[in-house]
């Protein structure tokens, strides 16, 4: 990475009034959170993701699907936010007109201090009722318990405390549309920002992959942080090769060191 690129990126970030930080699986992987396909390990390896990550699969075998998502949720609980997550929270605190958009279904941004991340693909921690689609309230039998559910275990889903319908994971499954409110908020933020940071995302999963392109077309400086080239390279003003935990803390420190010294 050429030395001039971080300086230019730091200047853009330090001068920005509206920042969007857009994160993908790479930032969570640094905390040890696997993607849903990578979480098909051990006894879960005999299943196909398509069998577990659809509404049809849940209705056909809710105990199986809920058991896998409880397994995933327990693994996220044991993961910790890293320096990249904390740097993003620092950007949000420093720039009032900032927005964090994530494709990840974990809560690492929130645990790092981000106040209101937009979850394009839902969250493992916002289950909802299948009958009314409203957020579900139920007794979380694993809340605060770091014990991982046995691998491959079938677990009956809880019932909604309001209507007694089944509770489903609050994630976007194959064949489902992204949450309309989240997608609208993400598009509006991308179209209005002056700096757009895309972090740890492959840029190939649509419609989420269109969000950085919306920012670029609207005139924002798109800065990509990724160890490897992606299809987003061509629309980015700056490509910083490295991981979120490596690049973001240094970028944030440089951005506000420059502005504070003026």
Write up this protein.
The structure is a single chain. The protein is of the alpha/beta class and about 260 residues long. It has one domain (about 5-260): 3-Layer(aba) Sandwich (Rossmann fold), CATH 3.40.50.1220. Helices cover about 40% and strands about 15% of the residues. It has helices at about 5-15, 25-30, 50, 55-60, 60-80, 85-95, 110, 180-190, 210-215, 245-260; strands spanning about 20-25, 95-100, 120, 120-130, 165-170, 195-200, 220-225, 240. The strands form two sheets. A six-stranded parallel sheet has the order 3-2-1-6-7-8, sandwiched between helices. Helix 1 (about 5-15) crosses helix 10 (about 245-260). The two termini are about 25 Å apart. The mean pLDDT is about 85.
Q: In a nutshell, what does this entry contain?
A:
The chain is an alpha/beta fold and 262 residues long.
Amino-to-carboxy terminus distance? 26 Å
**CATH architectural designation:** 3-Layer(aba) Sandwich
Structural class: alpha/beta
Oligomer: single chain
CATH class: Alpha Beta
Secondary structure layout:
Layout lengths: L3 H12 L2 E6 L1 H5 L19 H4 L2 H6 L1 H17 L4 H12 L2 E6 L5 H5 L5 E2 L2 E8 L37 E5 L8 H13 L2 E5 L10 H8 L3 E5 L12 E3 L3 H17 L2
Helix pairs in contact: 1-10, 6-10, 8-9
């Amino acid at each position: 990475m050429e030395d001039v690129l971080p300086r230019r990126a730091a200047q853009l970030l330090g001068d920005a009034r509206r920042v969007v930080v857009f994160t993908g699986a790479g930032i969570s992987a640094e905390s040890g959170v696997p993607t849903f396909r990578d979480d098909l390990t051990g006894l879960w390896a005999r299943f196909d993701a398509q069998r577990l990550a659809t509404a049809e699969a849940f209705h056909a075998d809710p105990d199986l699907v809920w058991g896998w998502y409880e397994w995933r949720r327990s693994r996220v609980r044991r993961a910790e936010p890293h320096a990249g997550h904390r740097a993003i929270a620092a950007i949000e605190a420093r720039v009032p007109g900032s927005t964090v958009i994530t494709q990840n279904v974990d809560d690492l941004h929130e645990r790092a201090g981000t106040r209101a991340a937009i979850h394009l693909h839902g969250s493992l921690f916002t289950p909802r009722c299948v009958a009314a689609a409203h957020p579900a309230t139920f007794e979380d039998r694993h809340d605060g318990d770091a014990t991982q559910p046995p691998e491959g275990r079938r677990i009956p889903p809880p019932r909604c405390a309001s209507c007694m319908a089944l509770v489903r994971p609050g994630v976007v499954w194959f064949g489902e549309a992204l949450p309309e409110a989240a997608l609208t908020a993400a598009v509006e933020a991308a179209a209005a920002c002056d700096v757009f940071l895309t972090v740890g995302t492959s840029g190939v999963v649509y419609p989420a992959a269109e969000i950085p392109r919306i920012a670029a077309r609207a005139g924002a400086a798109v800065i990509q942080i990724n160890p490897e080239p992606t299809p987003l390279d061509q629309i980015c003003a700056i490509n910083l090769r490295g991981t979120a935990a490596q690049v973001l803390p240094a970028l944030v420190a440089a951005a506000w060191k420059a502005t504070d010294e003026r």
